[in-house]
Protein backbone atom coordinates (compact mmCIF):
# COMPACT_ATOMS: atom_id res chain seq x y z
CA UNK A 1 0.00 0.00 0.00
CA UNK A 2 1.07 3.63 -0.29
CA UNK A 3 1.86 5.80 2.72
CA UNK A 4 -1.43 7.72 2.63
CA UNK A 5 -3.35 4.40 2.78
CA UNK A 6 -1.28 3.36 5.80
CA UNK A 7 -1.96 6.68 7.55
CA UNK A 8 -5.70 6.23 7.10
CA UNK A 9 -5.55 2.63 8.35
CA UNK A 10 -3.67 3.77 11.45
CA UNK A 11 -6.29 6.45 12.13
CA UNK A 12 -9.05 3.85 11.75
CA UNK A 13 -7.28 1.56 14.22
CA UNK A 14 -7.18 4.43 16.72
CA UNK A 15 -10.96 4.79 16.45
CA UNK A 16 -10.94 8.17 14.70
CA UNK A 17 -14.52 8.85 13.55
CA UNK A 18 -14.41 12.33 11.99
CA UNK A 19 -12.01 14.55 10.08
CA UNK A 20 -13.19 18.11 9.41
CA UNK A 21 -11.47 20.29 6.87
CA UNK A 22 -10.68 21.81 3.49
CA UNK A 23 -8.41 19.69 1.28
CA UNK A 24 -5.80 20.96 -1.14
CA UNK A 25 -3.51 19.65 -3.85
CA UNK A 26 -0.79 18.57 -1.44
CA UNK A 27 -3.04 16.19 0.50
CA UNK A 28 -4.84 14.77 -2.54
CA UNK A 29 -3.44 11.25 -1.97
CA UNK A 30 -4.66 11.29 1.63
CA UNK A 31 -8.14 12.34 0.51
CA UNK A 32 -8.26 9.50 -2.04
CA UNK A 33 -7.24 7.04 0.68
CA UNK A 34 -9.80 8.47 3.07
CA UNK A 35 -12.62 8.09 0.55
CA UNK A 36 -13.02 4.34 1.12
CA UNK A 37 -12.40 4.37 4.89
CA UNK A 38 -14.80 4.23 7.82
CA UNK A 39 -13.79 7.74 8.84
CA UNK A 40 -16.33 10.42 7.93
CA UNK A 41 -14.82 13.46 6.26
CA UNK A 42 -16.81 16.66 6.79
CA UNK A 43 -16.07 19.33 4.21
CA UNK A 44 -16.12 22.76 5.85
CA UNK A 45 -16.12 26.25 4.39
CA UNK A 46 -13.02 27.43 6.25
CA UNK A 47 -10.20 25.64 8.05
CA UNK A 48 -10.78 27.61 11.26
CA UNK A 49 -14.33 26.22 11.41
CA UNK A 50 -12.89 22.73 10.92
CA UNK A 51 -10.57 23.16 13.91
CA UNK A 52 -13.39 24.38 16.15
CA UNK A 53 -15.51 21.39 15.10
CA UNK A 54 -12.70 18.99 15.98
CA UNK A 55 -12.21 20.78 19.29
CA UNK A 56 -15.83 20.36 20.36
CA UNK A 57 -15.86 16.73 19.27
CA UNK A 58 -12.84 16.21 21.52
CA UNK A 59 -14.34 18.07 24.47
CA UNK A 60 -17.57 16.09 24.30
CA UNK A 61 -16.12 12.62 23.71
CA UNK A 62 -12.64 12.68 25.26
CA UNK A 63 -11.28 11.30 21.98
CA UNK A 64 -9.62 13.26 19.19
CA UNK A 65 -11.10 14.10 15.83
CA UNK A 66 -9.01 15.35 12.94
CA UNK A 67 -8.95 18.78 11.36
CA UNK A 68 -7.33 19.00 7.97
CA UNK A 69 -5.79 21.71 5.84
CA UNK A 70 -3.31 21.93 3.04
CA UNK A 71 0.08 23.61 3.27
CA UNK A 72 0.62 27.38 3.60
CA UNK A 73 -2.66 29.30 3.97
CA UNK A 74 -4.62 26.13 4.76
CA UNK A 75 -2.37 25.48 7.73
CA UNK A 76 -2.34 29.10 8.92
CA UNK A 77 -6.15 29.15 8.78
CA UNK A 78 -6.25 26.16 11.15
CA UNK A 79 -4.02 27.60 13.84
CA UNK A 80 -6.52 29.72 15.81
CA UNK A 81 -8.83 26.76 16.42
CA UNK A 82 -5.86 24.52 17.18
CA UNK A 83 -4.54 26.94 19.79
CA UNK A 84 -8.02 27.21 21.29
CA UNK A 85 -8.30 23.44 21.57
CA UNK A 86 -4.86 23.02 23.08
CA UNK A 87 -5.28 25.69 25.74
CA UNK A 88 -8.76 24.44 26.67
CA UNK A 89 -7.46 20.86 27.00
CA UNK A 90 -9.39 19.22 24.14
CA UNK A 91 -7.78 16.28 22.28
CA UNK A 92 -7.29 16.96 18.57
CA UNK A 93 -5.36 15.66 15.57
CA UNK A 94 -4.13 18.35 13.17
CA UNK A 95 -3.39 16.95 9.72
CA UNK A 96 -1.69 19.09 7.09
CA UNK A 97 -0.23 18.48 3.67
CA UNK A 98 3.13 19.82 2.60
CA UNK A 99 5.06 20.34 -0.60
CA UNK A 100 7.36 17.61 -1.85
CA UNK A 101 10.36 17.01 0.41
CA UNK A 102 12.61 17.81 -2.56
CA UNK A 103 11.64 21.51 -2.48
CA UNK A 104 11.38 22.26 1.23
CA UNK A 105 14.98 23.47 1.52
CA UNK A 106 14.38 26.53 -0.66
CA UNK A 107 11.93 29.28 -1.49
CA UNK A 108 8.97 27.54 -3.06
CA UNK A 109 5.26 28.02 -3.77
CA UNK A 110 3.23 28.18 -0.50
CA UNK A 111 6.03 26.51 1.46
CA UNK A 112 6.63 27.52 5.07
CA UNK A 113 7.74 25.69 8.20
CA UNK A 114 4.32 24.52 9.35
CA UNK A 115 5.66 22.24 12.09
CA UNK A 116 7.58 25.10 13.65
CA UNK A 117 4.45 27.26 13.49
CA UNK A 118 2.31 24.66 15.27
CA UNK A 119 4.90 23.73 17.91
CA UNK A 120 3.93 26.48 20.41
CA UNK A 121 0.20 25.60 20.26
CA UNK A 122 0.34 21.79 20.30
CA UNK A 123 1.63 19.08 22.59
CA UNK A 124 3.68 17.66 19.72
CA UNK A 125 4.20 18.49 16.05
CA UNK A 126 6.10 16.38 13.52
CA UNK A 127 6.65 15.58 9.84
CA UNK A 128 6.42 12.13 8.28
CA UNK A 129 9.77 11.78 6.51
CA UNK A 130 9.50 8.04 5.90
CA UNK A 131 6.36 5.91 5.43
CA UNK A 132 7.75 3.19 7.72
CA UNK A 133 7.40 5.60 10.65
CA UNK A 134 3.68 6.24 10.21
CA UNK A 135 2.37 3.57 12.66
CA UNK A 136 4.60 4.85 15.46
CA UNK A 137 3.82 8.50 14.72
CA UNK A 138 0.06 7.98 14.75
CA UNK A 139 0.13 5.83 17.90
CA UNK A 140 2.25 8.45 19.68
CA UNK A 141 0.11 11.35 18.41
CA UNK A 142 -3.22 9.90 19.54
CA UNK A 143 -1.83 8.81 22.88
CA UNK A 144 -0.40 12.28 23.53
CA UNK A 145 -3.64 13.95 22.46
CA UNK A 146 -5.66 11.88 24.95
CA UNK A 147 -3.17 11.87 27.83
CA UNK A 148 -4.01 14.22 30.68
CA UNK A 149 -3.98 17.00 30.19
CA UNK A 150 -5.36 16.49 26.68
CA UNK A 151 -4.50 18.75 23.76
CA UNK A 152 -3.67 19.08 20.09
CA UNK A 153 -1.00 17.20 18.12
CA UNK A 154 0.11 17.88 14.55
CA UNK A 155 1.15 15.49 11.77
CA UNK A 156 2.46 16.85 8.46
CA UNK A 157 2.62 14.61 5.38
CA UNK A 158 4.59 15.89 2.36
CA UNK A 159 2.97 15.11 -0.98
CA UNK A 160 5.81 12.91 -2.30
CA UNK A 161 6.05 10.89 0.93
CA UNK A 162 2.30 10.20 0.72
CA UNK A 163 2.85 8.28 -2.53
CA UNK A 164 5.67 6.01 -1.34
CA UNK A 165 5.01 2.29 -0.77
CA UNK A 166 5.00 0.65 2.66
CA UNK A 167 4.48 -2.85 4.06
CA UNK A 168 3.93 -1.69 7.63
CA UNK A 169 0.69 -2.23 9.54
CA UNK A 170 -0.96 -0.17 12.31
CA UNK A 171 0.26 -0.67 15.86
CA UNK A 172 -2.26 -2.12 18.34
CA UNK A 173 -3.95 0.38 20.65
CA UNK A 174 -3.17 -0.19 24.31
CA UNK A 175 -4.59 1.99 27.04
CA UNK A 176 -2.98 2.21 30.46
CA UNK A 177 -4.11 3.48 33.83
CA UNK A 178 -2.89 6.95 34.70
CA UNK A 179 -0.49 7.38 37.65
CA UNK A 180 -2.25 7.85 40.99
CA UNK A 181 -1.21 9.88 44.04
CA UNK A 182 0.84 8.28 46.82
CA UNK A 183 -0.99 7.37 50.03
CA UNK A 184 1.38 9.51 52.10
CA UNK A 185 0.56 12.76 50.30
CA UNK A 186 -3.15 11.93 50.33
CA UNK A 187 -2.95 11.37 54.10
CA UNK A 188 -1.40 14.83 54.45
CA UNK A 189 -4.15 16.40 52.35
CA UNK A 190 -6.87 14.66 54.35
CA UNK A 191 -5.41 15.77 57.70
CA UNK A 192 -5.20 19.36 56.47
CA UNK A 193 -8.83 19.31 55.28
CA UNK A 194 -9.89 17.72 58.55
CA UNK A 195 -8.26 20.59 60.49
CA UNK A 196 -10.04 23.30 58.48
CA UNK A 197 -13.19 25.06 59.67
CA UNK A 198 -14.38 26.64 56.41
CA UNK A 199 -12.86 24.74 53.47
CA UNK A 200 -13.91 25.60 49.93
CA UNK A 201 -13.43 23.88 46.57
CA UNK A 202 -12.54 25.68 43.34
CA UNK A 203 -13.33 23.22 40.55
CA UNK A 204 -11.58 23.66 37.21
CA UNK A 205 -11.62 22.15 33.75
CA UNK A 206 -10.39 18.74 34.93
CA UNK A 207 -13.56 18.22 36.98
CA UNK A 208 -15.85 17.88 33.96
CA UNK A 209 -14.46 14.42 33.19
CA UNK A 210 -17.27 11.99 34.11
CA UNK A 211 -15.29 9.98 36.66
CA UNK A 212 -13.96 13.11 38.34
CA UNK A 213 -17.41 14.71 38.50
CA UNK A 214 -18.87 11.56 40.07
CA UNK A 215 -16.24 11.44 42.81
CA UNK A 216 -16.50 15.20 43.43
CA UNK A 217 -20.25 14.92 43.97
CA UNK A 218 -19.71 12.04 46.42
CA UNK A 219 -17.17 14.15 48.32
CA UNK A 220 -19.60 17.05 48.58
CA UNK A 221 -22.46 14.79 49.68
CA UNK A 222 -20.27 13.43 52.47
CA UNK A 223 -18.91 16.79 53.66
CA UNK A 224 -21.17 19.58 52.38
CA UNK A 225 -18.12 21.54 51.22
CA UNK A 226 -19.17 24.20 48.71
CA UNK A 227 -17.95 24.20 45.11
CA UNK A 228 -17.15 27.26 43.02
CA UNK A 229 -16.86 26.33 39.35
CA UNK A 230 -14.71 28.10 36.80
CA UNK A 231 -16.38 28.94 33.49
CA UNK A 232 -15.17 25.63 32.06
CA UNK A 233 -16.18 23.47 35.03
CA UNK A 234 -19.89 24.23 34.89
CA UNK A 235 -21.97 21.16 35.69
CA UNK A 236 -19.25 19.33 37.62
CA UNK A 237 -21.81 19.51 40.44
CA UNK A 238 -25.55 19.91 39.91
CA UNK A 239 -26.76 23.52 40.03
CA UNK A 240 -29.62 22.41 42.30
CA UNK A 241 -27.32 20.89 44.92
CA UNK A 242 -26.95 22.88 48.16
CA UNK A 243 -23.16 22.78 47.85
CA UNK A 244 -23.17 24.39 44.38
CA UNK A 245 -21.98 27.98 44.87
CA UNK A 246 -22.21 28.75 41.16
CA UNK A 247 -19.44 30.29 39.05
CA UNK A 248 -16.36 32.43 39.47
CA UNK A 249 -14.30 34.04 36.74
CA UNK A 250 -15.37 37.66 36.32
CA UNK A 251 -12.64 40.24 36.66
CA UNK A 252 -14.58 41.96 39.47
CA UNK A 253 -15.57 40.71 42.91
CA UNK A 254 -18.92 38.95 42.73
CA UNK A 255 -21.22 37.29 45.24
CA UNK A 256 -19.53 33.86 44.95
CA UNK A 257 -16.17 35.53 45.69
CA UNK A 258 -17.38 36.10 49.24
CA UNK A 259 -17.05 32.36 49.85
CA UNK A 260 -13.34 32.58 49.00
CA UNK A 261 -12.87 35.54 51.34
CA UNK A 262 -14.35 33.55 54.22
CA UNK A 263 -12.53 30.27 53.50
CA UNK A 264 -9.61 29.17 55.65
CA UNK A 265 -8.61 26.52 53.10
CA UNK A 266 -9.03 26.48 49.31
CA UNK A 267 -8.93 23.10 47.57
CA UNK A 268 -8.35 23.45 43.83
CA UNK A 269 -9.37 20.48 41.69
CA UNK A 270 -8.36 20.13 38.04
CA UNK A 271 -7.68 23.85 37.99
CA UNK A 272 -5.83 25.60 35.14
CA UNK A 273 -4.47 29.05 35.84
CA UNK A 274 -5.82 30.38 32.53
CA UNK A 275 -9.37 29.77 33.81
CA UNK A 276 -9.29 32.35 36.62
CA UNK A 277 -5.95 33.75 37.64
CA UNK A 278 -5.18 33.37 41.37
CA UNK A 279 -4.25 37.05 41.60
CA UNK A 280 -8.00 37.69 41.35
CA UNK A 281 -8.89 35.44 44.29
CA UNK A 282 -5.67 35.37 46.31
CA UNK A 283 -4.25 38.85 45.81
CA UNK A 284 -3.06 39.07 49.43
CA UNK A 285 -1.35 35.67 49.20
CA UNK A 286 -2.99 34.65 52.47
CA UNK A 287 -4.96 31.59 51.37
CA UNK A 288 -3.84 28.10 52.31
CA UNK A 289 -4.22 26.01 49.16
CA UNK A 290 -4.31 22.29 48.43
CA UNK A 291 -3.69 21.59 44.73
CA UNK A 292 -5.15 18.32 43.40
CA UNK A 293 -4.66 17.75 39.69
CA UNK A 294 -3.17 15.57 36.97
CA UNK A 295 -0.12 17.85 36.79
CA UNK A 296 1.93 19.83 39.33
CA UNK A 297 0.93 23.43 40.02
CA UNK A 298 2.05 26.21 37.71
CA UNK A 299 4.55 28.52 39.43
CA UNK A 300 2.96 31.85 40.32
CA UNK A 301 3.52 34.22 43.23
CA UNK A 302 -0.20 34.16 44.02
CA UNK A 303 -0.49 30.36 43.81
CA UNK A 304 1.88 28.59 46.18
CA UNK A 305 0.03 25.47 47.40
CA UNK A 306 0.69 24.15 50.87
CA UNK A 307 0.17 20.59 49.55
CA UNK A 308 0.25 19.27 45.98
CA UNK A 309 -1.53 16.01 45.16
CA UNK A 310 -0.47 14.99 41.66
CA UNK A 311 -2.08 12.12 39.74
CA UNK A 312 -5.35 10.95 38.30
CA UNK A 313 -7.95 13.40 39.63
CA UNK A 314 -10.86 10.97 39.89
CA UNK A 315 -8.72 8.46 41.75
CA UNK A 316 -7.40 11.16 44.08
CA UNK A 317 -10.96 12.13 44.98
CA UNK A 318 -11.84 8.47 45.51
CA UNK A 319 -8.88 8.14 47.91
CA UNK A 320 -10.09 11.21 49.77
CA UNK A 321 -13.62 9.82 50.00
CA UNK A 322 -12.27 6.55 51.43
CA UNK A 323 -10.51 8.47 54.20
CA UNK A 324 -13.60 10.52 54.97
CA UNK A 325 -15.65 7.34 55.35
CA UNK A 326 -13.00 5.73 57.57
CA UNK A 327 -13.04 8.85 59.76
CA UNK A 328 -16.83 8.72 60.15
CA UNK A 329 -17.30 11.92 58.17
CA UNK A 330 -16.11 15.50 58.66
CA UNK A 331 -17.76 18.56 60.16
CA UNK A 332 -17.32 22.19 59.12
CA UNK A 333 -18.89 25.62 59.56
CA UNK A 334 -20.49 26.17 56.16
CA UNK A 335 -23.07 28.78 57.13
CA UNK A 336 -21.38 31.54 55.13
CA UNK A 337 -21.32 29.35 52.02
CA UNK A 338 -25.05 28.73 52.44
CA UNK A 339 -25.57 32.51 52.51
CA UNK A 340 -23.56 32.89 49.30
CA UNK A 341 -25.72 30.31 47.57
CA UNK A 342 -28.91 31.97 48.81
CA UNK A 343 -27.83 35.44 47.66
CA UNK A 344 -26.66 34.25 44.23
CA UNK A 345 -29.81 32.20 43.71
CA UNK A 346 -31.86 35.34 44.36
CA UNK A 347 -29.61 37.27 41.96
CA UNK A 348 -30.30 34.79 39.16
CA UNK A 349 -34.04 35.34 39.56
CA UNK A 350 -34.02 39.15 39.69
CA UNK A 351 -35.40 39.69 36.19
CA UNK A 352 -37.76 36.73 35.93
CA UNK A 353 -40.75 39.02 35.38
CA UNK A 354 -39.13 41.41 32.89
CA UNK A 355 -41.45 42.72 30.17
CA UNK A 356 -39.16 45.11 28.32
CA UNK A 357 -39.77 46.10 24.71
CA UNK A 358 -37.22 46.93 22.03
CA UNK A 359 -34.35 45.57 24.13
CA UNK A 360 -34.09 42.41 26.22
CA UNK A 361 -31.91 42.13 29.32
CA UNK A 362 -29.21 39.41 29.29
CA UNK A 363 -30.45 38.07 32.62
CA UNK A 364 -33.94 37.49 31.24
CA UNK A 365 -32.63 35.79 28.09
CA UNK A 366 -30.58 33.31 30.08
CA UNK A 367 -33.31 32.60 32.63
CA UNK A 368 -35.75 31.73 29.84
CA UNK A 369 -33.08 29.73 28.02
CA UNK A 370 -32.24 27.67 31.09
CA UNK A 371 -35.92 26.79 31.55
CA UNK A 372 -36.17 25.53 27.95
CA UNK A 373 -32.94 23.53 27.88
CA UNK A 374 -33.00 20.08 29.43
CA UNK A 375 -30.38 18.88 31.94
CA UNK A 376 -28.39 17.10 29.21
CA UNK A 377 -28.88 19.65 26.42
CA UNK A 378 -25.81 21.60 25.30
CA UNK A 379 -25.26 25.34 25.16
CA UNK A 380 -22.15 26.77 23.46
CA UNK A 381 -21.01 30.31 24.12
CA UNK A 382 -19.00 32.36 21.67
CA UNK A 383 -16.64 35.07 22.97
CA UNK A 384 -17.87 38.57 23.76
CA UNK A 385 -19.92 40.37 26.39
CA UNK A 386 -22.55 37.62 26.20
CA UNK A 387 -19.92 35.14 27.43
CA UNK A 388 -19.66 37.00 30.74
CA UNK A 389 -23.42 36.89 31.21
CA UNK A 390 -23.60 33.20 30.29
CA UNK A 391 -20.77 32.41 32.71
CA UNK A 392 -22.55 34.20 35.54
CA UNK A 393 -26.23 33.38 34.85
CA UNK A 394 -26.41 30.08 32.95
CA UNK A 395 -25.87 27.26 35.42
CA UNK A 396 -25.77 23.54 34.67
CA UNK A 397 -26.89 20.16 35.91
CA UNK A 398 -24.33 17.99 34.09
CA UNK A 399 -20.70 18.29 32.91
CA UNK A 400 -20.03 19.41 29.34
CA UNK A 401 -23.45 20.97 28.88
CA UNK A 402 -22.14 24.55 28.71
CA UNK A 403 -19.07 24.86 26.49
CA UNK A 404 -17.17 28.12 26.83
CA UNK A 405 -13.73 28.90 25.36
CA UNK A 406 -11.71 30.35 28.21
CA UNK A 407 -8.00 29.76 27.66
CA UNK A 408 -7.18 31.05 24.18
CA UNK A 409 -10.68 32.54 24.04
CA UNK A 410 -11.31 32.92 20.32
CA UNK A 411 -14.33 34.55 18.72
CA UNK A 412 -16.08 32.57 16.00
CA UNK A 413 -16.09 29.38 18.08
CA UNK A 414 -19.77 28.69 18.73
CA UNK A 415 -21.36 28.09 15.31
CA UNK A 416 -18.84 25.48 14.08
CA UNK A 417 -18.73 24.03 17.60
CA UNK A 418 -22.50 23.59 17.57
CA UNK A 419 -22.26 21.67 14.29
CA UNK A 420 -19.87 19.18 15.90
CA UNK A 421 -22.04 18.94 19.02
CA UNK A 422 -25.06 18.09 16.89
CA UNK A 423 -23.09 15.30 15.18
CA UNK A 424 -22.00 13.83 18.52
CA UNK A 425 -25.41 14.22 20.19
CA UNK A 426 -28.15 14.36 17.54
CA UNK A 427 -30.72 13.52 20.25
CA UNK A 428 -30.03 16.64 22.34
CA UNK A 429 -30.99 20.27 21.96
CA UNK A 430 -27.95 22.23 20.77
CA UNK A 431 -27.95 26.00 21.25
CA UNK A 432 -25.12 28.38 20.36
CA UNK A 433 -25.20 31.93 21.73
CA UNK A 434 -23.13 34.47 19.79
CA UNK A 435 -22.63 38.17 19.58
CA UNK A 436 -23.22 39.79 16.21
CA UNK A 437 -19.45 40.28 15.88
CA UNK A 438 -18.42 36.69 16.63
CA UNK A 439 -21.18 35.06 14.60
CA UNK A 440 -20.18 36.81 11.37
CA UNK A 441 -16.57 35.65 11.79
CA UNK A 442 -17.52 32.09 10.80
CA UNK A 443 -20.98 32.56 9.30
CA UNK A 444 -19.89 30.65 6.19
CA UNK A 445 -20.38 27.46 8.21
CA UNK A 446 -24.12 28.10 8.01
CA UNK A 447 -23.88 26.30 4.68
CA UNK A 448 -22.12 23.36 6.34
CA UNK A 449 -24.86 23.14 8.97
CA UNK A 450 -27.56 23.13 6.30
CA UNK A 451 -25.75 20.61 4.07
CA UNK A 452 -25.40 18.22 7.03
CA UNK A 453 -29.01 18.95 8.05
CA UNK A 454 -27.85 19.48 11.62
CA UNK A 455 -30.39 20.03 14.35
CA UNK A 456 -29.18 23.19 16.08
CA UNK A 457 -30.21 26.72 16.99
CA UNK A 458 -28.03 29.82 17.02
CA UNK A 459 -29.09 32.83 19.07
CA UNK A 460 -27.45 36.13 18.14
CA UNK A 461 -27.37 38.98 20.66
CA UNK A 462 -27.34 42.09 18.48
CA UNK A 463 -25.83 45.33 19.73
CA UNK A 464 -24.09 46.55 16.56
CA UNK A 465 -20.59 46.63 18.01
CA UNK A 466 -17.85 44.85 19.92
CA UNK A 467 -19.64 45.01 23.24
CA UNK A 468 -17.07 43.37 25.51
CA UNK A 469 -14.30 45.70 24.36
CA UNK A 470 -16.62 48.66 24.87
CA UNK A 471 -17.49 47.41 28.37
CA UNK A 472 -13.84 47.17 29.34
CA UNK A 473 -12.89 50.51 27.77
CA UNK A 474 -15.73 52.23 29.63
CA UNK A 475 -14.64 50.67 32.91
CA UNK A 476 -11.02 51.74 32.51
CA UNK A 477 -11.22 55.02 30.58
CA UNK A 478 -14.80 56.19 31.02
CA UNK A 479 -15.36 56.23 27.25
CA UNK A 480 -15.15 54.02 24.15
CA UNK A 481 -13.35 54.13 20.84
CA UNK A 482 -15.40 53.53 17.70
CA UNK A 483 -16.46 49.89 17.97
CA UNK A 484 -19.73 50.00 16.01
CA UNK A 485 -20.63 48.23 12.77
CA UNK A 486 -23.65 47.45 10.61
CA UNK A 487 -25.44 44.12 10.38
CA UNK A 488 -27.33 42.24 7.66
CA UNK A 489 -31.03 41.54 7.59
CA UNK A 490 -30.73 38.50 9.83
CA UNK A 491 -33.92 36.72 8.81
CA UNK A 492 -33.08 37.20 5.13
CA UNK A 493 -29.56 35.90 5.82
CA UNK A 494 -30.97 32.80 7.51
CA UNK A 495 -33.35 32.09 4.64
CA UNK A 496 -30.58 32.55 2.06
CA UNK A 497 -28.70 29.67 3.69
CA UNK A 498 -31.82 27.51 3.98
CA UNK A 499 -32.18 28.12 7.73
CA UNK A 500 -35.27 29.03 9.67
CA UNK A 501 -35.06 32.66 10.80
CA UNK A 502 -36.67 34.54 13.68
CA UNK A 503 -36.37 38.00 15.17
CA UNK A 504 -37.78 38.75 18.61
CA UNK A 505 -37.86 42.29 20.02
CA UNK A 506 -39.82 41.96 23.27
CA UNK A 507 -39.10 40.02 26.44
CA UNK A 508 -42.55 38.49 26.59
CA UNK A 509 -42.08 36.84 23.17
CA UNK A 510 -38.63 35.40 23.71
CA UNK A 511 -39.44 32.09 25.37
CA UNK A 512 -42.08 31.09 22.83
CA UNK A 513 -39.88 32.05 19.86
CA UNK A 514 -36.87 30.19 21.20
CA UNK A 515 -38.93 27.09 21.91
CA UNK A 516 -40.28 27.22 18.35
CA UNK A 517 -36.72 27.41 16.98
CA UNK A 518 -35.46 24.57 19.16
CA UNK A 519 -38.27 22.33 17.93
CA UNK A 520 -37.86 23.11 14.22
CA UNK A 521 -36.29 20.66 11.82
CA UNK A 522 -32.82 21.69 10.70
CA UNK A 523 -30.81 24.76 11.74
CA UNK A 524 -32.56 27.88 13.06
CA UNK A 525 -31.42 31.43 13.77
CA UNK A 526 -32.93 33.61 16.50
CA UNK A 527 -31.85 37.25 16.74
CA UNK A 528 -32.69 39.67 19.53
CA UNK A 529 -31.68 43.20 20.48
CA UNK A 530 -29.69 42.87 23.69
CA UNK A 531 -29.77 45.51 26.41
CA UNK A 532 -26.08 45.98 27.10
CA UNK A 533 -26.78 48.96 29.32
CA UNK A 534 -26.80 46.17 31.89
CA UNK A 535 -23.02 45.75 31.47
CA UNK A 536 -22.12 48.98 33.23
CA UNK A 537 -24.98 48.54 35.67
CA UNK A 538 -23.49 45.20 36.72
CA UNK A 539 -20.06 46.82 37.04
CA UNK A 540 -21.55 49.49 39.30
CA UNK A 541 -23.37 46.99 41.49
CA UNK A 542 -20.35 44.72 41.88
CA UNK A 543 -18.17 47.71 42.69
CA UNK A 544 -20.46 48.54 45.62
CA UNK A 545 -20.61 44.98 46.92
CA UNK A 546 -19.33 44.03 50.35
CA UNK A 547 -19.15 40.52 51.74
CA UNK A 548 -20.82 39.83 55.11
CA UNK A 549 -18.61 37.68 57.30
From TrEMBL:
KW ATP-binding (keyword) present: no
Residue ranges occupied by any Thiamine pyrophosphate enzyme central domain in the UniProt entry: 188-320
Domain Thiamine pyrophosphate enzyme TPP-binding: residue ranges: 382-527
Bilayer-spanning residue ranges: none
Segments forming domain Thiamine pyrophosphate enzyme N-terminal TPP-binding: 1-117
Cellular component terms per the entry's GO annotation: acetolactate synthase complex
CDD domains for this protein: TPP_PYR_POX_like
Record SUPFAM superfamilies: DHS-like NAD/FAD-binding domain (SSF52467), Thiamin diphosphate-binding fold (THDP-binding) (SSF52518)
GO molecular function: acetolactate synthase activity; flavin adenine dinucleotide binding; magnesium ion binding; thiamine pyrophosphate binding
Origin superkingdom: Bacteria
Keyword terms, alphabetized: Thiamine pyrophosphate
GO BP terms in the entry: isoleucine biosynthetic process; L-valine biosynthetic process
The family this protein is said to belong to: Belongs to the TPP enzyme family.
Protein name: Acetolactate synthase large subunit
Species: Pseudomaricurvus hydrocarbonicus
Lineage: Bacteria, Pseudomonadati, Pseudomonadota, Gammaproteobacteria, Cellvibrionales
Amino acid sequence: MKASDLLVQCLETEGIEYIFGVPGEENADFMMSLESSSIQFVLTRHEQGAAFMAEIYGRLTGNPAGCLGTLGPGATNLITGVADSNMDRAPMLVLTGQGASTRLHKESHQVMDVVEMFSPVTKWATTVWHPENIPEIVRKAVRLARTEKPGAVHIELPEDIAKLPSNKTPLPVRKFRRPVPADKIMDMAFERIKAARRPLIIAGNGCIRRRASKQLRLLCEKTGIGVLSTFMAKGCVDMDSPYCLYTIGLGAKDIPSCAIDAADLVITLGYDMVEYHPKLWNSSDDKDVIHIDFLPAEIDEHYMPEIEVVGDLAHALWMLNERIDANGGLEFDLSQQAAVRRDMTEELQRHAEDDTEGFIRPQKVLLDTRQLMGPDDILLSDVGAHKMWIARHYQCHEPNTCLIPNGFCSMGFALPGAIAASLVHPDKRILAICGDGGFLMNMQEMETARRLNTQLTVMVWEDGGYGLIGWKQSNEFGRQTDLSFDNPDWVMLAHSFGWQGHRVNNSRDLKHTLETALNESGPSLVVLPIDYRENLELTRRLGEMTCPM
